[in-house]
What does this fold into?
Amino acid sequence: MALNLAAYEDNLTVVKDFEPALLWHWFSRISATPHPSFHEEALATDIIEWAIAHGLAARRDGIGNVIIKKPATKGYENHEPIALQAHLDMVPQANEGVLHDFATDPIRLRLRPDDNAWLMATGTTLGADNGIGMASCLAVLEDDSLVHPELEVLLTMTEETGMVGVVGLKANELASKIMVNTDTEEIGEVYIGCAGGIDADLSLPLMWQKNPFDATLSLTIKGLRGGHSGLDIDKNRGNAIKLMARVLVKLLGQFDGQFAISHIKGGTLRNAIPREAQVVISCQQSSLSALIDTINDATAQIFDELKQAEPNLIAIIDTTKLGPKDNVLTWASSCQAIHLINALPSGVVRQSDIAKDTVETSLSFGQLKMDDDVLKCVLLIRSLVDSGKEAVCDTLSSIAHLSGAQITFAGDYVGWNPDTDSVITPITTQLYSQILGHEPDIKVIHAGLECGLIKQSHPDMDIVSIGPTIKNAHSPDEMVHIGSVAVYWRLLTEILANAPLKR
It folds into this structure.
C-alpha cells in the first residue's frame, strides 16, 4: 500500500510548527505509508523514486536494502565519508478494539493529550522507532544547506523481525568507514555497544478430547503497559502471559480434573512485552462459582503486587458470551500446558558486571498461541555476551525436555562490542557536550541494534548510535519527545560538519 495522501496532509497539520521542519515532513510521509515488518516495499520504492528524482544515486541491494549516496559539499571532499543508517520497518501494535490493518492503514499522528511535548499515534504504535531516524537520514539528503562529507544512507529491511536486512548485507556494499546509527531512544546518550540475540520457539503437542463439561468461562488479562522486550525488560512491567499462568497454576492445585482448556493465547510479537492474554476454560456448572472465586483471589493478589508498576491492569471473567466447546484439552494436556508456560522464565536474567545499570542477559516470553495440535511459546533471548545467551538456550532446552516440548532456535545475531580505537566516538562525545552543556552518557544498550551485524560484513566500520527520546516503543503508548528531536538533529548535523579528514 502506497502513500496515503489524506493521512499525509493530516499528519503535516499536527507537526506544522515542529523543528526541524524537513525532518517532520519526512516523518509525516513515512507514517502515512504503511510499513510494518515484511510490508516495507511500498515505502522503499517511494524513497528510491524520490532519490532518483532529486538526482541522487539510489539502489536496492540483493536483500532489498535501500542505499543512497550524496556527494560531499564543496570543500568537504577530503573528509571521511559517513554512512547514516536506519531501518525501514516498524512494530505493529494496536490497542484492543482499534481496527487497524498495519499493512494497508496509515499511522495517524496526534499530540499526547495531557502533555503537548510528546507526539503519539492514534491507538497504535507510532513508529518513531526507527521512523524518526529514517526521517533524519532523508532530511539530510534533501537539505542542501548542510555541510557534509560524501554521504551514504543505508535503510535496512525488516529489522524488527529477524534483522533481515543486515543479515543479508554483503561485504563492500558500503564504501564509508564511519557510520552513525540512528536507532537510539534517549537524548543525552551515545551508544557504542549492544546486545546480541536469538529467537527460541517451544512447541508442545496437545491432546484433545470430546468436551465432558457443561459450562465455559473466559479469563482475559489486559491493560498492561507492555513495551520493548529489551529496553523495558528491567522496568518491572507485567507480562500478561506469565500473570495468566500464575492464575491457572492456582486452579490446578484446587480443581484436580475438574476443568480443561479449550483455547489459550497471549501477546502478539516476539520483541514486545505481552499486554494481553486470554484463556477459555470448560468446567461443570457446579464448579463454576468456586473456579471464579479462586481466579478472583489469585488476580487480587497480582493486582496488589503490581499496583504501582501496572495501575491499569484488569482481569475480566466472562461466562455469558461463550458456549461449551465441542473439544477441549485432556486433563493431562491442560496440566502440561499450564506447567510449561508457568515454568518458562521471562525477564532479567543477569545484570552486567561491566556496563553499569545495564542488563547483561534477558529472556522475553513474547507470544503464546495454539496452532492445530500444538501450543507454541515464542521467546527472544538477548545478551551482551555469547555465553549468557548460550546459558539461557540451555535452560530452555532443559525445560523443553522435562515438559515434552520441542524447541528450535533461529535468527542468532551477534552483539556489538565497543571499539577502543573509535574515531567517531570522541568526536560525537565532544560535540554532544557542547550542545548539552554537560557530557553525554556513553553506554551499551540492551537491545538489538544492527551495528554488530553491520560490522560482520564491514569489519572496519567505526560506529556510534544516537537518537531522540522515545518512550514505550513497541507498544501503542509509544511516544517521541518533540524537543529532543531538534537536539538530536543538531548533533547529527554537527557530526557531519565535523567529519574527520581522510586518513
